[in-house]
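pasting for ref
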Amino acid sequence: MNEIGKILIEEAKREKTIEIARNLLEVLTIEMIANKTGLTVEEVKSLEDESK
């Protein structure tokens, strides 16, 4: 697989992780979501702010 293909796959994985984190905002704390998804606390807080 070439470098562009790898980049596209990584971007798709990140988008899926963000989608999962958004869904978890209703049931878990920001810290728990960050810990389980690999996102930073700041990234999860940003997702929470976007959803308000």
